Hints:
Blueprint lengths: L4 H7 L1 H20 L25 H26 L1
Amino acid sequence: MNINPSKWFINNRTTVYVLSVLLCAIGVAMYNNLPKEKFPEIKIPKIFVQTIYPGTSPENMENLVSKHLEKEIKNNYRNQKSNQ
């Protein structure tokens, strides 16, 4: 006796559709019932630095002011995080 699953699936399309929908419904139900600790809330800290000095080129502002501010803010954040 030759067992051919492909032929069975082709001949029983309705059964395959019902099983597929049932499997998807079970998956959605299981996803919705997962405990909250499985998905911890992740907060990525973001700080936006904007420096304005009329009459100065953007490149000068970036190199002379913004990069130094960003570096200091990053260092302060790391120090604060390590102290916790």
